[in-house]
């Protein structure tokens, strides 16, 4: 099976620290994204809910996904892997925040293998749409918090 890659980008006038404040707190994600409810399953390093190794669940419609934070470089980069909830393998998402003038460029990308042959394009399409909602929602919410 072929590795699938997706990405979405947006730019906001909010500074990287302002964007990071929302991105690094997964409990805020449902308020600015297409995701449904959030719950923390296991805290990460230092007992922080969204620290390295922290596991969270997101329930959207009939889907419940579990994700683990595998990389944190404040205020530049956050990476997580999918533990369960979608028929995908080796799923890893990376959110990169890059200064853009006085604002921030947000890039949300992922790679994965489909769980079944012939389904990669479906998940690529659906997840790209979700990622577009994530980056535009994050960009808008970070600016609104100023």
UniProtKB/TrEMBL annotation:
CDD domains cross-referenced by the UniProt entry: PYR_PYL_RCAR_like (cd07821)
Domain of life: Bacteria
Coiled coil feature spans: none
InterPro entries xref list: Polyketide_cyclase/dehydratase, START-like_dom_sf
Disordered as annotated region, ranges: 32-53
Protein name: Polyketide cyclase/dehydrase/lipid transport protein
Taxonomic lineage from the root: Bacteria, Bacillati, Actinomycetota, Actinomycetes, Pseudonocardiales
